[in-house]
Amino acid sequence: MVDPKFDIKDLSVWFGHLQALKKVTLAIAPNEILSIIGPSNSGKTTFLRMLNRLNALNLSFRVEGEIRIDGVDLLRLDVEALRKRVGMVFALPLSLPLSIYDNVAYGVRMHGEKNKKKLEGRVQAALEEAYLWEEVKDRLQESAFKLSGGQQQRLCIARTLAVEPEVILFDEPCSGLDPISTAKVEDAMLKLKSRYTIVLVTNNVKQAARVGDRTAFFLNGELIELDQTEKIFTAPHDKRTEDYILGKFG
Amino acid sequence: MRNPYRTQKIAFFFLLLSTLLIVVPVGLIVVIIIQKGLPAINWQFLSEVPQQGMRAGGIFPAIVGTFYLVSGAILFALPIGLLAAVYLTEYAKDNLLTRIIKLAIVNLAGVPSVVYGLFGFALFVVFFKFGASILSGSLTLGIMILPVIITTSVEALESVPASFREVSLSLGVSKWQTIRNIVLPNAVPGILTGTILGLGRAAGETAPILFTVAAFYLPQLPASIFDQAMALPYHLYVISTQVPNVDEKVRYGTAFVLLALVLSMNLVAIVIRSKFRKKKKW
After folding, report:
1. Is residue B172 within 8 angstroms of chain A, CB to CB?
2. CA A82, CA A56: separation in Å to the nearest integer?
3. What is the pTM of this model?
4. Could you tell me which of B127, B84, B131 has the C-alpha nearest to residue B105?
5. Which ranges of chain A have pLDDT less than 50?
6. Which of A109, B179, B215, B252 could form a disulfide bond with B36, CB atoms 3.0-4.6 angstroms apart?
7. How close B171 gets to chain A, by Cα (Å)?
8. A240 touches chain B (CB under 8 A)
9. A88 touches chain B (CB under 8 A)
10. Distances, alpha carbon A23 to alpha carbons A60, A64, B267, in Å
11. What total of structural domains would you count in chain B?
12. pLDDT at residue B277 above 80?
């Protein structure tokens, strides 16, 4: 593998007495889509939220092990600078109670961009990248809550893209969406791959098969198997992976 | 024979009766005060100083005094209360200190108002040598309404969904920027509601101003915050118990003005809250 974007070694995470991740070791290559599958409570989301240190918001949180981003210890980085580089799209379309335009411009503004022209440019570019521009270009000042669920989720993607991250974390981004909206979000992901590293947590095994370059299977906080997506879905090593993919549990 | 249907009817009757019993005194107070007080209300009553040993004339100095006191109390209590609420909801960790602070706030809310009066007298009037003045009275009232403002502000801040904060933080936006740009704007209506409820309480209390500011009779308006002032609740107490032969009309007129002031403040709070609920979209 080329120099990995993320290099994770023996990562363990606790919330109080509950261990959510158990000595997970894996590397994520730049410009790949890594899908993470597994049943609920398998530690997928916990793993994802380690990469932008969002777990630290939980007061009972404790971590051991090492995460490196571009070779630098992630836990030592300034947390705001890290989150600027590692964006996140959440499970539910979480629009902020602002207009469509302001939702996308929010992060950019907060990072100090005051030039109106530049802001407009960034907002338009981000909306185009998220395949939403055509649908909203005439109603940018309307409340974001007026958009449909799928549009709001693409708005969230645009909002993340606008701050120009290097990595985008998707946390079950299509769990609340209909198939057509899901297809649009997946399209966007595949196109974004050329410019960003993408980590996708999904409950939808088929989605992992459709978009992931590689797929990791988590179970009870452990990384069971990680391989090329094709291989995971055709000839998995571990019996548990096979059972999960075939829908025998989870 | 037990008849569940009849039992229910009886239960329902008592439940309704208890509820109606709450409404009756409120209704009676309003009706009596309006009936007896409204005839006294005219421009002269609202705009002139008391005359003939407060048996005639108006109550203008008392209205002005109450206005100053309430403004002063808010000026003091709102910033402190709001900042404390932000600290408690956004920054405080769940430790001994936080629990002591929360306990203190609850207890502060339970302190009888006359104790605030004594406390204000000892601290502001005597110790800080502010004398009996608008400053002393405002600070005393401010401390009294702090718990109201803190509790309602905490509630308002907590009602802003945690997901908004997560989204903002996930964009690399700092915590303070998140509070300033996402949390506070969405909590403003709730905070306003609490503030106005505090205003209403500050306007109506007699005991805290008794030793700290209230003047028995002071025809000229206060010139600075170190002056004494008349205030509506204390004026009402004085003309009801301390001055003989005051016309009933004057007493009820004063009560009417005080009640109207407090109720209209509560009404404003209710309107703001309902507007906010309609606008809320999450």
Report:
1. yes
2. 13
3. 0.82
4. B84
5. none
6. B252
7. 6
8. no
9. yes
10. 19, 8, 59
11. 1
12. no
